[in-house]
């Protein structure tokens, strides 16, 4: 696997972690439920603890977005095709979001969601199956 592909996979994963942080930043319900479940005898602490946790999640959101764009840029630099990078990042992001959503929020996805993932992966395999040399030869033929 090329370094561009690894960077693209990491960009997709970082984007999905940023999505989790965004959901925790915007919706205090998850953090409050976590606090009351863990510190149930300290109800007054949970009344204000979600505020600094939301700020922390907001900072993590910005951090992981920065990491995602850094890896995306590196993937574009190391890959021969921007389409390959885009589809790889998208597939990695969707799959990571599905797994992280299940782990953190107990989300369950419908069969249609998984069918969309499967189609995205099929497109990814088609893009990675085409050889860059054949594409370059087509460009040379069109120029003549």
UniProtKB/TrEMBL annotation:
Keywords: Membrane, Transmembrane, Transmembrane helix. InterPro entries: EmrE-like, TMEM42. The chain crosses the membrane at residues 51-72, 84-105, 111-128. SUPFAM superfamilies: Multidrug resistance efflux transporter EmrE. PANTHER family: TRANSMEMBRANE PROTEIN 42 (PTHR31965). This is Transmembrane protein 42-like. The lineage of its organism: Eukaryota, Metazoa, Chordata, Craniata, Vertebrata. The gene is LOC114478284.
